[in-house]
Amino acid sequence: MGRRKKNKPVIEKGPGLKDLIPKWEAPVTDPVDNAWSLTIPEFKEGDMKEKLFEQSSFNILFPAYREEYLKKSWPLVQKALADYHIKATLDTVGGSMEVMTTRKTWDPSIILKSRDMIRLLARSVPFEQAVKVLQDEISADIIKINTYTRNKEKFIKRRARLIGPGGCTLKSIELLTNCYVLVHGSTVAGVGPYRGLQQLRRIVEDTMNNVHPIYNIKALMIKRELARDPVLKNENWEKFLPKFKSKNISKRKQPKNKKIKKPYTPFPPAQPQSNTDKQLESGEYFLNQEQKKAKKTKEISDRHEEAQKKRQERREQAFVPPEEAKSTEKKTDTKMDIDVDEIKKKVKKGLKKNNNIKPST
Questions:
Q1: What is the maximum alpha-carbon separation in the chain?
Q2: Which of 139, 178, 177, 137 is nearest to 37 (CA)?
Q3: Contact at 8 Å (CB) between 142 and 187?
Q4: Which residues of 158-191 are buried (b: 16+ CB within 10 A; e: fewer)?
Q5: If 0-12 CB within 10 Å is exposed, 13-18 middle and 19+ buried, where does residue 98 land?
Q6: What is the DSSP letter of 214?
Q7: CB atoms within 10 A of CB 119
Q8: Helix (H) or strand (E) segment spanning residue 161
Q9: Can you say whether the dihedral through the CA atoms of 156, 160, 161, 163 is positive or negative?
Q10: What is the pTM (predicted TM-score) of this model?
Q11: DSSP E strands, 93-201
């Protein structure tokens, strides 16, 4: 007889490890048509469940001329940062500003925003503009412009070109980029949306690289008009934008007398004649001492005679009468054509009249 199979007890299986792990969903990596149109979700108090483990702080130095303004506006700075539970301190002795997080800070990125705010205050940006950095969709950018050229005169001219006459260029840049721009010393500070700051940095860098800002301003104006047109909205705009052509003109001082290069010849130039060769050609080499002396005296006398003639001509010029200007007026003919017969007739008539007159009684 064979062995009888024993019935194994059935164990009910619970949820396995794979079932306990939540399914991971891959993030959306498809290209976005217009990334600038995406709205950043607002971060509110209570979204961060855990508190910050460590304290973060930033310390920014400020120049001495900003001390009075910072003393007056510091209560406003503390009030603006108190909503985010950020502690701000002003050290007038050391000339520095410090911001730090606390245990109640509910936004982890606000410390970076507050750092940008005190950095703008140190660069002479007014508090009303610097406090806008604390908003989500607004940021700040400080561009250093004194590293683009070593020549101080060129730097001052290009910085003045960025400002424009009466600040009109700077005002147009602000209107097109929707940013507040301040040119101060060796930096350009900008406060505004991220896209506007990107355009502002390109304009400032091109201007300091000797490209006039009017090219970028025209390009921004054209882009704004093309974006409104539904037909040209999704087409390439390169043919509509202005193109800058660099004119590299050398301003090196040119020599007064330029040497003209002669055509290349493999043969060396002829050796110049010496004084002896010249005397041999003219025959002077074979003359005696007395003949040479007589020749020299004759040359000197000829020179004196020529000079005497020129001197005499110059003296006689004072006695030469000036030429009278010929009148251009045409002379009128004074001759008159006289008819003798008519005169005789008139005389006869006169005599007849006199004869016919009766004597008075």
A1: 217
A2: 137
A3: yes
A4: bbebbbbeeeebbebbbebbebbbbbeeeebbbb
A5: middle
A6: H
A7: 19
A8: helix 152-163
A9: positive
A10: 0.57
A11: 96-101, 138-144, 180-184, 187-193
Question: Which is more confident, 13 or 205?
Answer: 205
Structure tokens at 280: 């041999």
The length of the chain, given as a count of residues: 361
Half-sphere exposure (CA, 13 Å, Cβ side) for 96?
A: 7
DSSP codes, 56-117: -EEEEE--GGGHHHHHHHHHHHHHHHHTTTEEEEEETTTTEEEEEE-TT---TTHHHHHHHH
For the record, the structure tokens of 57 come out as 């702080």
Percent with pLDDT over 90 in the chain: 38
**What pLDDT, in 10s, does the model give residues 206-246?**
999 988 898 888 888 888 888 787 777 777 777 777 776 66
Which amino acid, residue 76?
L
User: CA-CA distances (angstroms) from residue 40 to 31, 132, 312?
Assistant: 17, 17, 102
**Tokens standing for residue 81:** 């940062």
Q: Are 187 and 144 in contact (CB under 8 A)?
A: yes
Q: Check if the beta carbon of residue 159 is closer than 8 Å to that of residue 145.
A: yes
| Nearest C-alpha neighbor of 173 from the set 125, 223, 217 | 217
Pair of tokens at residue 69: 């303004």
Nearest to 295 by CA among 285, 308, 310: 285
Average pLDDT over all residues of the chain: 82
pLDDT, one tens digit per residue, over 21-38 is: 445 444 555 565 666 677
Tokens representing 79? 């009030």
Which of 165-169, 235-239, 322-326 bottoms out in mean pLDDT, i.e. has the lowest? 235-239
The H or E element containing residue 155 is helix 152-163
